[in-house]
Amino acid sequence: MKPVALFTLPNCKWCKEASSYLKTKKIKYNIVDLSKNKEALKDCQKHKCTGAPVILIGNVWICGFDKDKINKELGIK
Fold first, then answer.
1. 49, 57, 67, 77: which has the fewest Cβ within 10 Å?
2. Is the dihedral angle over the CA atoms 59, 57, 11, 13 positive or is it negative?
3. pTM (2 decimals)?
């Protein structure tokens, strides 16, 4: 399984949705709080992601909560 990181912001509805989705699919992931980690924020911006959540699967950046892209990258349905 590819490593998964979920970049979030406090009080972000879609971040909570993404986290719940990954949990229901039994995907292990690391959470990174963009409000506390400025380097991670710069990385997200460098990959043209302007909001949260951002999901990093392997070396693929997914901007926003996009189930289809997440499923494709993880090879799940």
1. 77
2. positive
3. 0.94
